[in-house]
Amino acid sequence: MKARIVVLAGLVLALGLLAPVTAGSRVRAQEPVDCRGLQAYADQYHAVGQTYQQAMSGIDTSNIEGWTATEFAAAHAAVDTAIAGVNALTPPAIAVEMQAQAVSSLELFKEMLTAIEQEGMLGALPYIDQINSAGDALDAIVLPIEEHCNVAILDNDDDGTPEVGVGVALDPALDPSAPLGDYTNPIPVGTAQQTVDSWTIQVVSVTPDGTQAVLNENSFNEAPDAGRQFFIATITAVNTGAAPATFDGNFRLRARGADGTIYTAFGDACGVTPNEWDQDMNVAPGASQTANLCWSVPSDQVQNLRMFDKQAESSGLVYWSLGQDVV
Description:
Blueprint: H1 2-6, H2 11-14, H3 38-56, H4 69-87, H5 96-119, H6 125-149, E1 193-194, E2 199-207, H7 211-217, E3 228-239, H8 249-252, E4 253-256, E5 262-263, E6 288-298, E7 306-309, E8 319-321
Antiparallel strand pairs: 1-2, 2-3, 3-6, 4-5, 4-7, 7-8
């Protein structure tokens, strides 16, 4: 549970409230009247996100439990600036509800930071579901606007670039001639693969429907929403570097369905998972950590579900098979 709380420190971007600056999608030649001004607004909205990223760049968001008063003050200032930046924008009528939801979500995130500073990590617990719901509410507002106006606002598929709609669907057909690690030729289960930094990652085994195992693990765990199941992957990370290090698998390792949807162990959390991943575990050079990650996934998206390391997105994602590949 602690790991899922810690990664909330970067949740402003993870929720898509503010996305990195991008050229974005240009409007159609025959722009709907109600879409006029939306592209310029989206560019300004993304600029607020870049300012937030820059302000947070010097803070270790994976170690919020170790933050000093100075670091909390810097994080609060960054969020305050983001709230002020969004509030200062003048949205076209079509984006008024979106802006209100974004500000509300940012204010909720600020409340959570205050609770953590005052009460420790357990102070975040009452906010996890609220923040996830806030992200869902923002998606429900923005996705129809993006598709109607052909303007990219949120990073809906979590690839680092805002896009129109939920993102590009991927061709799940296996292609052995494709480069190893491509979505169509993923790293096989049981095979270790070096990632962008000093780690190799191996999917040891999977439990496609681990719902009962999760429910048995903790009496406070709740069943997945209707039509979803808890997908458990046992992962081994080996430290190939020269110094002890930690690996934040809960944040870095994500699952992706063939429809392009991304699932994270914090945003699509299962609850307390058997042998769950500990991002604070210090791993010596040459040593390894083996534990479980769990994603709540729609049952109709389990087929062709594959895993990637978000840390590698700037140099090109590599996909690991989760044993559900269909020829």
